[in-house]
Amino acid sequence: MTATAALPFTIAFDPRDEDELMSRWRSVIRSQRWSEGEQVEEFESLWTKWNDATAVAFDNWAGAALAALDFFNVKGEKVLCPSNTFLATPRAAQLSDAEVVFYDCNREDLCGSFDDFVRKAELVRPKAAWIVHVGGHIAFDIVRIANYCRERGIRLIEDCAHSHGAHWNGRRAGTWGDLGIYSFYATKTISTGEGGVAVARDPEIIKHLRSFRNYGRGSNYTIQGMNHRMHEMTAALAVVQTRRMEEIVAWKRDYAREVLDRAHPNRVRFPDGMESGFYKYIVFDPIEKSTGRVYELPCHRIMRHEVDLPNTDWVAANHWCAPIYYPREAQTPKAGSVERVALA
Ligand SMILES: Cc1ncc(COP(=O)(O)O)c(C=O)c1O
User: Fold this and answer.
1) For the segment 85-107, what is each residue's pLDDT rounded down to a tens digit?
2) 61-71 vs 88-95: helix axis angle to the nearest 10?
3) Ligand 1 mutation target, pool 183, 187, 295, most atoms within 8 A of CB
4) The ligand 1 atom nearest the CA atom of 194
């Protein structure tokens, strides 16, 4: 099998975790506590440790995004958003009654451009902004954008839907801005089918997120939240997946280095100290069996905004993704090396 031939899509779930998962599910059933119980607590504490920021579990990324935007009170305000992202990112701001202003990306990393961020921020004075870590690496301009936002009082939310396992010199996504939000949707590097988690270091934000996901409880109902709680069954899955995450990502890194890098010299190249979680393996040459693009159509085009974003349009037309799925064959007691993976 060549590096460009498609591996069948597999959800990264290791059979070694099946017994533990079943036993956790059994204990949930017997506990008579199917929500707001020990599994969510354990998952949050595991993720907090991994991310070095307090974690709050949600039903999905979207619930956490609405909670964050509610905390920043963006109603009637401008929110900057990259166009090269999933529709969820601008849609969450739109549904929070903010005005979305799109900014351009870089061609090198597909993520938000500092220069265009500043240009748009000077023009529209946003209250908040999104940065999206597209494809599994950290946005190359994250430090400059986060510093700029801090100086100007712009609240920065990191869309970490793809960032499982990624770090830059040990620092995880979601810790440069005010908060970060991960998705555990079915296609993600680790998944619970549906699910999400928000991370932040400010206790006021954490308090708000916890209350918002639970109809405003704990705030005297001053916070107008809804139900965005994570189910105990989902949280049990999140626990075993979080424990397995580093191994899954290590396999992906090995596969990228030992197989894909040789075949694809014209690819996203990371700065020193940055390790991608390889949600996607992004190249700039057409490949025979691409798994499609990260995004086919930029959000400013979907939402019909009359704005010129040349890099975003360039990226949409000029990148492809080589398959990089953690295969079931790798899910053996000694997983982690591509030699042990049945590639033929
Ligand atoms: C960049 C990005 N943001 C947000 C989301 C939304 O996540 P969820 O489906 O968990 O709401 C996704 C994908 O699912 C995504 O790729």
Assistant:
1) 999 999 999 999 999 999 999 99
2) 40
3) 183
4) 10
